[in-house]
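Re: that backbone. Tokens:
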């Protein structure tokens, strides 16, 4: 690599999404030299790439934004209950400009490797533009859902029309007017984009393998009064979010599901239904633990969905029957099920009639051929570990992170890995991550990492490294907590089931956001219990 340039700094951050942007700001405030590498030409991370029609966040906009700066919180005004991708991206670019973050970010640059020098305990990071930078600390803010999956369907590359992936949507948008469109995939991305595509397309064929639970967002513009009230009470809203199970200011019903009367239960489900979206799975505290409780939620759900689908046979296909409700992330939609009442929309169960191949003119299932002008792949991600696996991360004794994780990711607190001193993960496996509000989660992780770095500096240490024992214990704890819930019953991306050959491991800490934060604080307060603190040699 003769053209490589080399320099040396304190911190390298990979990724300029919510985590990376805050890391840059926070490390700078701490007086450290820091650089961010971002593959995209702009900030935003997942919100830069996932701009398919209908893309919105399923966490309320008033909660899905930075809490660290009261000034930012007061100055920005969200327009809708659930923000669109473009509004979130506007917010992130606004924050980047306001905090002068762009000067610290190298865009259009992908990190290809990160290699530890065991003698100096420094990392050398190499990019696809052949730049090499060494740093004391590397922070992987690479995002849990940033490695899109393209299905291995024979003939996909022979298709004569246009192929789009929801996670790589063209920036100029796509006009499907008059087109015959096929959408493969009915997870959150499919569920959000299908209603909008249906409004444009001449004909839309939805190729569904597994039906998903989806709860209407109940999205609407925020009123001036709501915004004023939220801004006046942000401290309390945030306090509740930090102490919650998922990083939002909503608490479960005070009774357990079966302790409530049928009327109380119905009223509680109805209230959550109107709140909209993913939090339906937290109506009652025991809903994800007790199958009887879960079944109550599922029955309520089924009634709601059957009521809006005209054709009972189509309803039968759209209602999941293979996993407890909430054990895969509940989708958040606007008119998803109603879309199947449209005369130009057909549901194709590829469970019943599998896709066999794609040719120049369309998709062939075991039953028939569908002539198409465009195919949309809403086929998801190699979640949690996919992006990290693409970076050649080499720690002690030449050990590669990807090899160490071949039987499932191994971390301590989702923050550190044994054998990889001074390498930090943001919202990585072993943390609540996607089970919580990802903005607050990223803030919590960056705060913890910055405090740890400050502690090392104050006490004359060169490095911090999770011990193998702490990792083993943490993973065992994560597994034990997961096994006590209904989550492992589903073939979800939480367990890697959507990626052929991926180790089946529940990759998240499911004990709740507040509990997790308490554990992280306790670890730090005890002088970084479970980590080795190393002096420079
Ligand atoms: O991906 P998914 P996603 N043939 O993996 C199907 C977040 N998110 O991008 O279930 C046919 O959920 C696959 O079928 P099956 C959110 O956390 C949030 O939609 O494997 N079908 C499934 O239906 C979410 O959970 C928001 O049988 C194939 C679909 O593709 C996560 O991202 C919005 C197939 C993939 O669904 C991932 O969501 C968007 C094949 N060969 C995303 N391969 C919000 O904030 C795959 N499928 C609202």
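Recovered sequence:
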């Amino acid at each position: 690599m003769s053209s490589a340039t080399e320099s040396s700094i304190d911190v390298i951050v990979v990724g300029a999404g919510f985590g990376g942007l805050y890391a840059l700001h926070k490390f700078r405030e701490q007086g450290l030299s820091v650089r961010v590498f971002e593959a995209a030409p702009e900030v935003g991370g997942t919100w830069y790439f996932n701009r398919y029609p209908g893309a919105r966040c399923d966490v309320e906009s008033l909660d899905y934004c930075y809490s660290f700066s009261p000034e930012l919180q007061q100055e920005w005004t969200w327009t809708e209950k659930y923000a669109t991708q473009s509004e979130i991206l506007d917010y992130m670019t606004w924050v980047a400009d306001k905090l002068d973050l762009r000067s610290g970010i190298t865009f259009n640059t992908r990190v290809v490797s990160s290699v530890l020098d065991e003698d100096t305990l420094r990392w050398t990071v190499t990019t696809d533009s052949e730049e090499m930078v060494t740093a004391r600390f590397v922070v992987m803010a690479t995002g849990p859902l940033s490695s899109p999956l393209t299905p291995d369907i024979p003939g996909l590359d022979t298709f004569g029309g246009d192929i789009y992936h929801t996670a790589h949507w063209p920036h100029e948008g796509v006009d499907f007017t008059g087109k015959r469109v096929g959408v493969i995939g009915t997870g959150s991305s499919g569920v959000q984009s299908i209603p909008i595509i249906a409004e444009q397309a001449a004909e839309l064929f939805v190729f569904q393998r597994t039906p998903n639970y989806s709860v209407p967002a109940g999205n609407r513009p925020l009123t001036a009064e709501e915004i004023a009230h939220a801004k006046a009470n942000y401290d309390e809203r945030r306090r509740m979010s930090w102490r919650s199970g998922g990083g939002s200011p909503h608490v479960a019903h005070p009774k357990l599901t079966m302790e409530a009367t049928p009327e109380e239960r119905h009223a509680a489900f109805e209230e959550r239904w109107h709140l909209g979206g993913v939090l339906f799975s937290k109506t009652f505290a025991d809903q994800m633990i007790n199958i009887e409780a879960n079944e109550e939620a599922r029955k309520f759900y089924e009634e709601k969905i059957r009521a809006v689908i005209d054709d009972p046979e189509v309803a039968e296909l759209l209602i999941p029957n293979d996993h407890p409700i909430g054990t895969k992330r509940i989708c958040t939609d606007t008119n998803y099920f109603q879309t199947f009442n449209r005369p130009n929309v057909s549901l194709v169960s590829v469970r019943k009639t599998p896709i066999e191949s794609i040719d120049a003119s369309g998709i062939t299932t075991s039953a028939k051929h569908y002539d198409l002008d465009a195919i949309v792949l809403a086929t998801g991600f190699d979640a949690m570990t996919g992006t990290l696996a693409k970076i050649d991360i080499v720690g002690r004794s030449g050990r590669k992170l990807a090899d160490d994780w071949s039987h499932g990711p191994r971390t301590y607190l989702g923050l550190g890995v044994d054998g990889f001193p001074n390498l930090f993960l943001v919202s990585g496996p072993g943390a609540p991550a996607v089970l919580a509000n990802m903005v607050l989660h990223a803030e919590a992780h960056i705060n913890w990492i910055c405090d740890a770095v400050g502690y090392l500096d104050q006490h004359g240490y060169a490095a911090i490294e999770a011990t193998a024992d702490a990792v083993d214990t943490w993973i065992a704890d994560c597994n034990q907590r997961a096994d006590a819930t209904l989550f492992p019953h589903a073939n979800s991306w939480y367990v890697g089931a959507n990626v052929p050959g991926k180790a089946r491991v529940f990759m998240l800490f499911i004990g709740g956001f507040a509990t997790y934060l308490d554990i992280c604080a306790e670890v730090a307060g005890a002088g970084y219990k479970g980590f080795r603190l190393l002096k420079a040699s």
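The pocket of 3-acetylpyridine adenine dinucleotide is lined by residues 56-58, 145, 151, 153, 166, 184-190, 192, 207, 209-210, 329, 332, 350, 355, 378-381, 434, 493, 498 (CB under 6 Å). The two ends are 29 Å apart (CA to CA).
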